[in-house]
Amino acid sequence: MFYDLYCELCKAKGITPTRAATEMGLSKSTPTAWKKKGITPQAAQLQKIADYFHVSVDYLCGNEEKPISEDAELNEYLEMLRTRPEIKMMFQLAKGATKEDVEKAVRVIEAMFGKDTKGD
Fold this sequence. Notes:
The protein is an all-alpha fold. The chain has helices at residues 2-13, 17-23, 30-37, 43-53, 57-60, 72-83, 85-94, 99-113. The longest helix has 15 residues, at 99-113.
């Protein structure tokens, strides 16, 4: 049942089902409706939920056994993209960048912070 999986994802994230719903822009009563009616959300809501929890829609529908990523570092970056508009803006600007463009940008950022990440 969708609601049970939703609750598992909320528990893993350390938040209540109601809080997760409001953070996604859904009504506070939406999870209760899923539980009482035993329904699965429509496609648009499923995608929003999948994005929020960093899982696939197929996983939410019970068609996959595991979430997309169990990589902690990747999940940390995904969370930064979701919660920090300035990081998201930087990635949006870099979409069409060449490897050389990215390397130049990294050198600029390293200079700003007095770091050299080449040795990392």
